C-alpha cells in the first residue's frame, strides 16, 4: 500500500438503498447502498441490478419501488 486511503461513507438522504436505472441516462444503472451496511445486502442488490439490466421483473417485488432510483428525483439523492 503506497498511502492510506479513507473514504467518507455517505448514505442517501432518506437512508434507503438506491437501486436501478438512472433516470435520464440510458443504459446506466446504480447500486448505492446504505452507509456501511451495503456489504451485507450486496448479493440481493446484485440480483436486482442483473434483473434490471436484463429488463426482467425485479426479485424484490414491491420493495423495488421503495429502492427505486426514480424516487430520488424528488428527494435529490442522486
Describe this protein's structure.
With 78 residues, the protein is α+β, with helices and mostly antiparallel strands. The longest helix is centred in the middle third of the chain and has 16 residues.
Compact description:
This protein is an alpha+beta fold. The protein has helices at residues 38-53, 63-66, 72-75, and strands at 18-21, 29-32.
Estimated radius of gyration: 14 Å
Provide the structure class.
alpha+beta
**Cross-sheet strand order for the largest sheet:** 1-2
Largest sheet: 2 strands, antiparallel
Query: Total helix count?
Result: 3
Number of strands: 2
How are helices and strands ordered from N to C? EEHHH
Distance between the termini: 32 Å
Q: What is the residue-mean pLDDT, rounded to a whole number?
A: 75
Q: What fraction of the residues are assigned to beta strands by DSSP?
A: 5-15%
The helix fraction, in percent, is 25-40%
Low-confidence stretches: none
Tell the overall outline. Answer: globular
Amino acid at each position: 500500500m503506497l498511502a492510506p486511503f479513507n473514504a467518507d461513507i455517505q448514505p442517501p438522504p432518506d437512508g434507503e438503498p438506491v437501486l436501478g436505472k438512472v433516470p435520464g441516462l440510458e443504459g446506466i444503472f446504480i447500486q448505492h447502498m446504505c452507509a456501511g451496511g451495503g456489504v451485507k445486502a450486496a448479493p440481493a442488490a446484485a440480483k436486482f441490478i442483473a434483473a434490471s439490466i436484463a429488463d426482467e421483473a425485479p426479485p424484490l417485488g414491491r420493495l423495488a419501488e421503495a429502492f427505486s432510483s426514480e424516487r430520488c428525483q424528488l428527494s435529490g439523492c442522486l
